[in-house]
Amino acid sequence: MNECMYCQPESLRRSSLMTKVCDLPGSVVYLFRDQRYAGRVVVASRTHFKEIFEMSEEQRCQFFNDVAHVAQVLTELFHAEKINYSIWGDKANHTHVHLVPKTQQQAEWGKPFLHDPDHPIHVDEHTFQVRVDELRKALELPSSF
Fold first, then answer.
1. What's the predicted TM-score (pTM) here?
2. Rounded to the nearest 10 degrees, how much is the dihedral formed by the CA atoms of 60, 87, 83, 59?
3. Calpha distance 95→4 (Å, rounded)
4. pLDDT, averaged across the chain
5. Which residues contact 104 (CB under 8 A, 6 or more apart)?
6. At residue 145, does pLDDT exceed 50?
7. Check: CATH 3.30.428.10 for 12-138?
8. Which neighbouring-strand residues pair with 27?
9. What share of the chain is helix, strand, coil (3-state, %, to 5)?
């Protein structure tokens, strides 16, 4: 757990890949710097769990409620026709879900999203910060969620 980039308050690896958007009740949301897919985020469990089944039922429900809330916001903000969800964890042994907004106009429609860390697509810093701010504002939880 000591080497987990999601558990360390200051992780150079994490900050090189993504920026924190906000805390939710059971998770932390990060926007990927690689914006090949506008709005691609990671929703990481607040607590370190290697596997989903290690969570209590309450923690698991809260975590997936957060994932659902983020997916709804991404759909609205980025006009996604589908959100792709991906859970790997081979290298980052902390329960987290990649949420990737997709549209039919993208070349990869109908296929798994393209994860190409050797050829990231970065937007300018202003555009990136606008996306962070829009997500942060939109993810404020209404009292009924």
1. 0.90
2. 10
3. 11
4. 90
5. 81
6. no
7. yes
8. 24, 45
9. 30, 20, 50
